[in-house]
Amino acid sequence: MRIHQGRGTAVAAVFLAAFLVSCSASPEAGSERKPTASEQPANVADAADGAEPAAAEPEAQEPLPTPVEKVRDAFATLQATLGDTCTPGNCDYFLSRVNDELTGLDKAMKADPKGPGHFKQPLAWMSALQETLGDDTSTANLEKHRSELIGVRDKINTWMQDHPDDYR
Description:
By secondary structure, the chain is mainly alpha-helical. The protein has seven helices and no strands. Helix content is 58%, strand content 0%.
């Protein structure tokens, strides 16, 4: 009996050790693991022998492209603003959010496989709004153009309701 229990404990210990090794062997996202002595580059090993290590050059990495939201997802977040209004203490957040959601929908429509021609009207409305707003997305400017901002949101909502295949 004692031998049987000993084997079970040994198997559990081996399994646990293998699990811990596998966990420590793969770095987590966003963290950098320091190489072990056996993984050290030759110039670091030479440094231990008294030689000067060569300066490490950082590898040039291209930034990963930011994935563009799907039209249906961008439209859903824009629709979520329909129940909100510009109330005291909430107006700056609300207007900024509507503007951000319209900007996201604009990008999604331009990147959609159907092509920007399919979304000709909504893209034209958003383009005209962006010309009106310019680069100024301050609360004062959004407040100044509140009716245009809300108007574009509402027109796009109506247009999308007539194109359910784009958001379902």
